[in-house]
Amino acid sequence: MSSNSNSELEPIRHTAEHILTLAMIRLFGTEKVIMAMGPATDDGFYFDFDHPDSFTISETEFPQIETEMRKIIQADLPLTQKILSVTEAQALFKTNPYKQAWLKDIEARGEPVSVYWLGDEFVDLCSGPHAPSTGAVKAFKLLSVAGAYWHGDEKNKMLTRLYGTAFSSQPELDQYLHQLEEAKKRDHRKLGKTLDLFTFSDLVGGGLPLYTPRGALIRRLVNDYVETVQAKLDFHQVWTPQLTKAELFKVSGHYDKYKDVMFRVHSNYSDEEFYLKPMNCPQHTQIYASRPRSYRDLPLRLTDFAMLYRDEKPGELSGLARVRSFSQDDCHIFCREDQVDAEIDQMLTMTKQIMQTFGFAYRYRLSVRDPKHPENYIGDPKQWDLVEKWAEKIMQRNKIDYFVGVGEAAFYAPKMDLMATDALGRDWQLSTVQIDYFMPERFNLKYTGSDGQDQRPVMLHRAIIGSPERFLMVLIEHFAGAFPLWLSPVQVVVLPIGEKHQTYAQSAVKTLKAADLRAELWDQAESLAKRIRHGEIQKIPYLLIVGDKEVEANTLALRVRGVGDRGVINLDQFVTQTKTLIDSRSLALDTI
User: Is 543 helix (H, G, I), strand (E, B) or coil?
Assistant: First the structure.
């Protein structure tokens, strides 16, 4: 969202975070604001504060806080790092329980304690990086205030989190703030309610979306499109249960790595340990293992849209962006090692086709291990080296623009993650491709090779849109709710001007529906202008208006979303042209 990379902005944003904290202490004192924690982020920075119940922080204080921050910036105070022992740091922060908690974690990891002094007035635990001095922060803005649990755990105390952002120039900040305003207009939570696509209920539970007929239709259309594309390429859809014994996940390795985000299920009649499944791959291994396989049977391509569940923390739930109930356009391919390249090439081609349909630009992230934390991964490091290099060669061979994401690999395999860019320039991870040797090994999967000997298959993991829930969020915000014609829940509305035009309008709607167009008749006792305005708010692609002239000439007056009046059109001509746009999944409306 700016011309600077995050690596270039990180020192500035880390510095701005310390400037914010010092400003808060200067203004309100350590009795009213107690430092907790706060990092630089991809979009700016934040800091969490504790405070007495009698004291509150709101956006009304932002001008006062920003004024004090500017004074600190103008003073051009130096930032100096010091490395301390845990004992020295504990003494330095002896009155702060949050810093003491951090220091216990640092001590347990056996890491050195890094602190940064801002001038000689303020010090905080931080590993950096920072700008040399506060004067390097050329443009900043406090954005919002929210509640946040300490460590994101609802069992802990609720703190007050201040969000802000910082850039190396004012024009970059202005551009970012403009995009934030655009993002607010496109917020999928707001548009989801306005367009009647989905809802949440406290009685159902947080993070469990309920789709209305319109939202369910879009979700189904997206899934059906993906299924249509992959079915032509000999992919076979399966259906697996949402409930699974714990033993399955113990074998796969997910139990040890994901147990804390898995929903445990209790049986009334058995002491067996069950979980709602958070992913499909372990169950797909059991379909593969259900019968003997020969090298002639491979590749076996299994797809699955079954529901998945993850026990996300309440404080991290956010509309459709982070939910507890979701599905994936999941695919697992069991193949021979010599088939891997061709299978992945086909996956990448299929993904390219689908991204083009939705109008997304994209690049890939090669998600690899974090060498500093080998304990986060299973399997032979030499196998990891092989697969990471293999994935890189595949992307180079396919001439794919990519960057490396250290520490973003799955615990069992590196990933080729597609990062789609939306209309506001924001990146979203959607597709993923993974080459997995470890899952087949853990489940002892086999096939009979051409030499009659048992061989181990390779397991490829693939998703294109990822989670339809999250993808719907991305689509809503990318299109600002103005979906392409083929995805629009209501494609055309017929508006009779008066009561005497209703018979003709009803006939037109009947014809449109017979042609499988999603059409509605809006003949409410409201003015035409008000109904047209409602159609614009609902992002209806086409409005067909019927008055005296249209009835007499057997035509309709056409209004196109985002364009306005386009004159009169014959109904049969309208049907033919709209069907062409739908069949081609065109992104354009103004071609009629």
Answer: strand
Residues 154 and 247 in one domain: no
Here the CATH number for the domain that contains residue 13 is 3.30.980.10
Q: How many domains does the chain have?
A: 3
Q: Which of 191-205, 308-322, 549-563 has the lowest mean pLDDT?
A: 308-322
Q: Write the pLDDT tens digit of every residue in 215-263.
A: 999 999 999 999 999 999 999 999 999 999 999 999 998 898 888 899 9
Residues 451 and 351 in one domain: yes
Non-local CB neighbours of 568 within 8 Å, separated by 6+ positions: 549, 550, 553, 555, 556, 557, 558
Contact 412, 281 (CB under 8 A): no
Active site residues: 281, 310, 328, 330, 332, 415, 461
Between the alpha carbon of residue 75 and those of residues 9, 136, 230, 452, the distances in Å are 21, 11, 61, 78
Task: Indicate whether 187 belongs to any domain.
Answer: no
Give the total residue count for the chain.
592
Distance, CA of 352 to CA of 346 (rounded, Å) = 10
Last residue of one domain, picked from the residues 479, 503, 522: 479
Same domain (yes/no): 492, 465: no
349, 378, 381, 385: which is closest to 462 by C-alpha? 349
Structural contact between residues 490 and 517, judged by C-beta atoms closer than 8 angstroms: no
Decide if 369 is inside a domain: yes
333 and 237 part of one domain: yes
Regarding whether 415 and 550 lie in a shared domain, the answer is no
| C-alpha–C-alpha distance, residues 176 and 171, integer Å | 9
Tokens 């040399």 locate to: 132
pLDDT tens profile 153-174: 778 889 999 999 999 899 999 9
121 by DSSP, 3-state: which? coil
pLDDT of the residue at 6: 61
Give the list of residues 6+ apart from residue 213 with CB closer than 8 angstroms, or none.
Answer: 489
pLDDT of residue 1: 32
pLDDT in tens, 415-469: 999 999 988 888 999 999 999 999 999 999 999 999 999 999 999 999 999 999 9
Task: Tell me, yes or no, whether 366 and 500 share the same domain.
Answer: no
Residues 155, 236 within the same domain: no
Residues 109 and 269: their CA atoms lie apart, in Å, by 43
- Please give the mean pLDDT across all residues of the chain: 92
pLDDT at 155: 83
Does residue 2 carry a pLDDT above 50?
no
Q: Is the pLDDT of residue 5 over 50?
A: no
Looking at the fold, whether 263 and 224 belong to one and the same domain comes out as yes
Coil, helix or strand at residue 541: coil
Cα angle 214, 218, 221 (rounded to 5 degrees) comes to 135
Please check whether residue 252 is in contact with residue 332, taking contact to mean a CB–CB distance below 8 angstroms.
no
Q: Does residue 193 belong to any structural domain of this protein?
A: no
Contact 414, 364 (CB under 8 A): no
- What local confidence, expressed as pLDDT, does residue 592 receive? 72
The domain in which residue 571 lies consists of 485-583
* Token pair 């007495």: residue: 52
Q: CATH number of the domain that 523 lies in?
A: 3.40.50.800
For every residue of 296-307, DSSP letters joined together read: GG--EEEEE--E
Question: From residue 18, how far is each of 15, 25, 80, 151, 176 by CA, in Å?
Answer: 5, 11, 12, 19, 21
Whether residue 588 is contained in a domain is answered as no
- Where is the domain boundary, 147, 181, 215? 181
